[in-house]
Amino acid sequence: MKPLVSVVMPAYNGEKYIGEAIESILNQTYTDFELIIIEDKSTDHTLQAIQKYKDSRIHLYTNSYNRGISYSTNLGISHSKGKYIALLDDDDLALKRRLEWQVAFMEEHAEIDILGGRSAMIDESGNFIRYDKEPIYNSNYIKANLLFYNKKFANCTTMIRKSFITENNLKYQDNCLGMQDFKFFIDSSKVGRLTSIDRLIHLKRIHKEEETVRRMKTCAAQRAGLYAEFQRESIRKSGFVLSEENLRAINEMMTETSKKSYSREDAARLFKALKEMIRQAREMNVDYITELEYACKKILGERILPRTDIFDWEDGKEGGKLSSC
Q1: CA-CA distance, 9 to 39, in Å (whole number)?
Q2: Average pLDDT, whole number, for the chain?
Q3: Terminal Cα-to-Cα distance of the chain (whole angstroms)
Q4: Closest CA relative to residue 80, chosen from 29, 21, 35
């Protein structure tokens, strides 16, 4: 009999934490699941740590050589039998009612293709650090934000309809320098609806070996360039046609991590680019125009303007009032 949920867990050099990750799934209140683990040719004792668990719901696959997290995630999905795919990293924890809550929501909301939830941060010893930012619940607002960045949507909180993945030929792409989830969500937002539940379902472990932290330190320049490429692709795929000047303004001001300061000229350039996007969105009559306008206001009001000198946004001075965006 097929399980309703397939939990996919890529594993690489995770011997220190993977036992806790596995147990957090095996101890779920919802029990109609399989746990698919893809062991990605670790150089430590991750495989032996996994093999300690003798549970018929665990299905272990091993790569012949190290293939990376995207390949392993895709392989896990290809082996899955469930209606829903739930993702979890080998160093994180799922709270015990995660599957129960997410399955109930997905069963009641056929219009939703990908469902996230709330996260909290823990340290290497499992001690609480802080709650992550509250996720976005408005599907159109998520879509608008994914034109520029992945805001408040954690990959390892997601539950995805497998039919949505297969029907749209969606995959996690290789060589994304730790940003494969950003790319996946961009592609998904063009053809489906994403939202989150207002429940804490996931504990994200912060430690020095964590993949995203490592990539941001060792591949900073390459990652910044790839991030800009993803932005451009997302904007283009949504039908916007921007000048190189406007695209550069978005790339340079809307980086993965916010800069400490922006000049008056920077603010004016970004305002011009976002205003042009709003104009084109109205012409295309997009279904998320309200959310896009709000996203632009948030970007300018929270990310850029507080880091500039007083700037005059009145009509006739730099292209119109802020409220026009």
Answers
A1: 9
A2: 90
A3: 53
A4: 35
Cβ atoms of 271 and 313 within 8 Å: the answer is: yes
How far apart are alpha carbons 172 and 154 in whole angstroms?
14
How many C-beta neighbours within 10 Å does residue 221 have? 7
- Determine contact, residues 38/8, Cβ cutoff 8 Å: yes
pLDDT digit string, tens, across residues 131-166: 998 899 999 999 999 999 987 778 999 999 999 999
Q: How far apart are CA 245 and CA 300, in angstroms?
A: 18
Prediction pTM value: 0.91
Q: How far apart are CA 76 and CA 58, in angstroms?
A: 12
| Unique residue bearing structure tokens 């469930």 | 82
Give the position of tokens 């991030």: 227
Task: For residue 88, give the nearest of 158, 186, 165, 190 by alpha carbon.
Answer: 158
Per the CB < 8 A criterion, the answer to whether 63 and 140 are in contact is: no
Phi, psi of 16 (to 5 degrees): -70, -35
Cα(247)–Cα(249) distance, integer angstroms = 5
